[in-house]
Structures are given as C-alpha cells and as structure tokens.
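Help!! Second protein's tokens look totally different from the first
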Amino acid sequence: GDLEVARKTMADAINLDLSDDGVDELARRLDLVPEQLDVLVGGPPCQGFSKNVTRSGRFLEDPKNLLVRSFIRAVEVFRPKMVLMENVAEMANAFGGSFREELQDRFREFGYEVEYQVHNAAEHGVPQRRRRVVFLASRTGVLPKLPEPRSQVGLSDGTHKRDEVPAGAVSVWDAIGDLAPVIGSSARPNRYASDPQSDY
C-alpha cells in the first residue's frame, strides 16, 4: 500500500567514510553490481586544488584530495552508465594538467568517453561567481554535449578576474533582496513586505 510506495521512494542516508575500502563497503550496503547504476554524480572535496592554497602547497598526493581518488574508485566499482563530476576550476590545470589527464585516462581505462569544461556558475543563473570544472563521462556510446559557457568573461589562459561578472548574471540581491527582514529569533515565518520579485 502507501507505506510500501513510501519505502520505495525514500532515500537512505549512509554515514560512511569513503576513503580506504569505503567504496567497496558502500557497494555491499547498496547491493549494487557493476553496470547496474545509471549515473554517478559527485563533487568530492578537493581542498588541495583550491586557489586558497598556495601553489607550493598543492601536490598530487595531498591527503585532502583522497576523496577525488575515492570517487574514481567508485566509478571503477560501480561502472555506471554515466558519470558527472564537478570540482574547483583549478583542478583542470593543477600540476600542469596532470591530475585532469590522469582522471580522464582512468575513465577511459574503464571504458568511458569523457570531456570536461570550466563554467562560471553565474553563467547559468546561480547568484554567485563560482568557477567549476565539470567532467562528463559515458560508456553508453552517447556522450551528451556540455553547454557552452554563455560568456567569454575571462583571460586567454582560462582564468577569470575575481571582480568580473558575466553579462546578465543574477546577483544575490536580485535573487533574495526581496525577502522579508528577519526579526528576532522566532520560528514563525516572516511575511514578504511586497510580492516576490524573482523566481528565487
């Protein structure tokens, strides 16, 4: 009945460390066999690539990048039909591009076609300037085309000046500037002072 339908549509939250043998444990818990999963989507933590880390502090085996390697292991174990991975834009060129190339080579070893692009989230209606690299991989024989970046804001080497905003970008004020002010710490919702001014 209704309870059984609810059980089928509920999502399980699994508290599991994916480093070491965690991916194999996840496969056991989910009872998934290779090639059963349609798509694996992830954005593994990647502090070792962050532009907030000095160039001399970035290195390929940085322990902070181990979950990227765990994500690669998950692709190897699950062999999903498609993979979508996003990460900090710096990953695309880190270590002279060697990490990006290693990632693409590993996907190809597993039988995937793979492409990547760097996008600024502001180019896609997100009210923040956030550059991300997106990897899309498929072993179905069909690799959907990633959308072209909407703007050419940036420098010839693919970097962006921090203060540049793509044309037509939505600001945080555009998105939520019409919210009612928060008054006190009541759990009651505050009312809009006027009709909402945006879809956000």
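Here's the second one for comparison:
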Amino acid sequence: MGTIIEIEPMRELLYADWDALDALCSGLDEHQWATPTCLPGWTVKDVLAHIAGIERMIEGDPAPTIDVSHLGHIRNDFAAAVEVWVEDQRHLSGEAVLDGFRDVVARRRAALAAMTQADFDAPSWTPVGRDETYGRFMRIRHFDIYLHELDIRDALGIADRADMAAMAMALPEADSALGYIASRRAALADGSVVRIDLTGPVVRTYVIGVVDGRGHLLEGHDREPDVTLAMSDALFLRLTGGRTRPGDHLGVDLEIAGDQAMGMHLAAQMAVTV
C-alpha cells in the first residue's frame, strides 16, 4: 500500500516552496545567476531551470530534443533525462528562466488546487518506485525543491528559510534511507547500533541497528549505541543530499560521541541523493 499524505498541508507547503524560490531569485543580477552551486556543472540559474523543468514534466510538456552527451557531470540515464531541461535553458538570461518558472508554477498551482484527497491517494509513479501514491510523489517534490532552495542559498551566502513545517515534511524522505545508509553505504558490522540526534530546530532521534546485513530503525532499544552523532536538521539534509563534507562541520554543528572513527565513516557515507 502506498503512502497516504494529507492533501491540504502538502499543497500549502508546495505553494510556500514556490513562493520562497520566487522571492529568493527575484532581483538577482547575472553574476549571481551564474554563481556555481555545490552541484557539479550547475549554477544558480541551472538549479532553478531544473526545478522548472521537473514541474513541466509533471504537467506533461514534451521534453526538449537536445544532446547532453558532452556534459561530463552526467552519470546515468535519469540524470540525462532531467539535464535536457537545464541545457535547453542555458542560453537564457536568469530573468527569462525565472519567468519560465513562474509560468509553470502557475499551471501547477491550478492543477493542485483542482485535486482532491482521492487524487492524492491514487497510485502514481514516483522516483522511488511505482507502487506509491501521488501524495508521496508530491512529498518527494517538496523534499527536492526544499533541498535545491538550500543549494541556492548556500551558493549565494543567504541564510536558510526559517520554516519548521517545511523541514519536518522534508525529513521523512531523508530518514527513510537510514537503514540503507548504515548497512550498505557505510557497511557497518552486524550488531552495530548507531544513534543520530537532530538538535533542531526540528528535533528527532534515530537509532539504527544492523542485523544480518540489513539496517533497521529501532524502537525501544536500550543498548548503548556504538556511536552517537548530533547535528542540526539542516546539516542532516545536506549530508544525506551529498551537499557537504562532515569534516567541515565537526565541532561546529556536528558532534560525535563514542566510536569516533565509526562516526566519521558513517557521516561520510550518508549521501543518498545527489
């Protein structure tokens, strides 16, 4: 059974995401539009072009017929499929890309406004599989847009948006991978128990155990963890998104208690979205 997502808060979060991006990008000069982000090959303008392109895909617009084989940062077919929307807009000014973003957002707002809870509960393709709901797809869209908003803010040196609801709804798309991170990415030994504390503004505690080569979120587990990582919610998103290196944050907004080597290894292997 797919994930059931309440339509009203999710719809409002997407509206807020689009409004935040519009406000963030309004008034940028061409130097700011051309600022490189942490994403290989993408400037601030490219990130907004990517977001607009995905929304156009959802609206059913035909993909541009354009060759992206010359771009060295493309690593798979999915990356190539989304890159065509970016490459198609690289000759445009930043303001023209923003105008295109506003156009597709207006269409997406109208589409979401016409939807019901039953529409959100309906089966849908998603980037994490076909056996899901349209609501889950929209939660993934929120996660992606919110993370890309952080990319733009980091590139331009602008503080994060203070919106606990947006962060709280983005976290499930990151924390759902913690078992995989512990057992496959970090390849922790069987019997390992690790704890991750998110220190806020959104506070969370995750305890992950590795049993028979598989990682699981544990509840009611009273064994002392081998290592505990404490970090902000924003750093957690950036690490799982492959946006930063844990060594740059150690002792600042990342603290490790217990097995230091295991903790640094786990933090360095948290990237599951790039």
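Reply: Different proteins will give different token patterns, so don't panic. The CA atoms of residues 126 and 137 lie 5 Å apart.
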